[in-house]
Amino acid sequence: MTAELVRGQNHTLPQTRLEIRVSAGTPVVAGATLGDEGGTVRGIEWIAHPGSPQLPGLEVSQQAAADHRLAVDLEALPAGAHRVTVLLALPVGVGGPVRFGAVPAPFVAVTGLDGTEIASFTLTDLDAESAVSALELYRRQDAWKVRAVGQGYAGGLAAMLADQGVGDPAALAGTIQEAVTRGLARSVAPPPPRTPEGDRVRHATGSADHSPTAPPPSPEPSVPLSDPAATGPAHPAQPHTAPGPAAAGPSVAGPSADGPINYAHPRRRHAAPPSPPPTAPPAQPGQPAQPVAGDATGWSMDERLYNQIWGMFEDLARAVAAYRSAVDFAESRMEQELDRALSDPRNRIGGAGDHAREEARAKRDELASRAREALDRDLAQLAAEAAVVEPALPAAYAGWGNPVWHAHRIPMEIPMALRIGDLHLPERADLRIPLLVRLPLERGIWVDSGRAASEAAALMDADRLRRLAMETAVAHAARLLAVYPPGEFAVHVIDPAGSAAGPLAPLVEAGVLAGPPAAGPGGVASVLAHLTRRVDLVQMAVRARAADSLPPDLDTGEQLLVVNDFPHGFDDRAVTQLRYLADEGPAVGVHLLMVADREEASAYGPVLDPLWRSLLRITPVADSHLADPWVGHAWTYEPVAVPPGSRVLEQVLAAVAEARRAAGR
Predict the structure, then answer these.
(1) Residue of 441, 478, 420, 458 whose CA lies nearest to 597
(2) Closest CA to 385 of 282, 318, 316
């Protein structure tokens, strides 16, 4: 039975391998400190935080998130550690709330590895505090207990660390916040909070669903899978389990009953119950059920597939995290057993020492082998699921090689999401998870054309890499044009030096651009002024609740600005306008797709840091730079490439042009 603690109350822990789950209504930073018998933190090597997430027996998340899972093995803690204090703090400098009194009360639970809740604590009565010591695990007479603390600090993370006796707490707090900022930019946006009917349906009998319980609704920062190169505040979140009615994008509709412009898709259903997912064939005794496409709840098959893909993503992240944690535990336990055995001088000579080493290594190998067997079972089940899901995907979710594109028709409604690449982990590189981003786009995209982006990029000719980056941007623009209804999506291109004529040829020849690619300083200024004006006018109409006051020449459909070779051709004013579009544009239907090498923009210094942080960084070649929103693994991203020799891109753009002509656009 769960012990619901109040501030100051304690409870005995029945086991030593635990998870500490944090659920907050906004992204928070989670960390932990180790203390000795007197509660003293002996140094920074006893602090786990996003910049240094692992200690023996302790692991925390590498990024800010509304939900965290901290792994704790009390037996594997360093010698002399008698206390584990869990710390929460609000990230600074990312545009979020600055005090806990302005957000829902955080909830912290201590659970077993099977998810069974042991004790929980809701941190109430917080106001001006921006950091809080949530709870502590402490040793008392050879038994471990948990105590609800709830001590808040208006001085933030630095004040909290100082209270724990940490030397130079301000510098360490700055290091932690900088690591959080980097993590935000490289992380994939998490799925929206689950609705009660939104849990993923699991028919497999061989493994449990490791999905976390539903967090309260919250605006999560959007981040790709983690990327150390950039970071930034992001926008609401994405996938596993039904997100409920999804808002569609900024085509400006008429004013609603109470006045504001309504951005919800007019044909989106809100009242009907979600349709039931497909039923898997009955499993043979002792065997997992056969996976089926659409194994999740949702309003439509597209929504069920969307939720299923994010469910697979989360399952793979957590399965690999459990495996890596088990291997780390096995290594740590072996080292501790060897230290204990060899601390006795009598074991250092003769065969006793060799026997102790062999025994410790045998235990390590046994634990690692059992962990790998469990991982292989999970991977096999996920691979079987991927094999049936991939062929069933609609065009927006499918790769360019999927036959669905050859029968694609321009839709009358926008889909929930768009595939922009694939992700995989080294434990099984052939198991690919589609990376889906919600539509309308909630943040801009940056295609990194720099040679320092990855090992694969460093080995490639610079000109070839730039061309490949622009081809990647063109393919994404074509996908967006193909999944939006005719006339509801426009693409503008800035190519200051005209160097991208080759990659842009499919868009230009199909006649699907809003105008010729803009070149030279005059062209750059004209396009930026046009889109900045659109953002300003729509924002004013929203604030004034006056949609009918928009000029008749204003295109209220979604707008995409493709920028090649930034910052070439941009003066200070143009840079400021671009930053404005990146920050304010997505909320009113103006999106940015930028091809750039960050090193070439280094002359601007830190003034461009907010721009890089606000964009989802992807690469034109495989690169391990994205982080998932649950565990923070470094995932290898690969772009969705058009098969060599295929004409599918030209065929899709021809269909877009034909649909526009038929619709009189």
Answers:
(1) 458
(2) 316
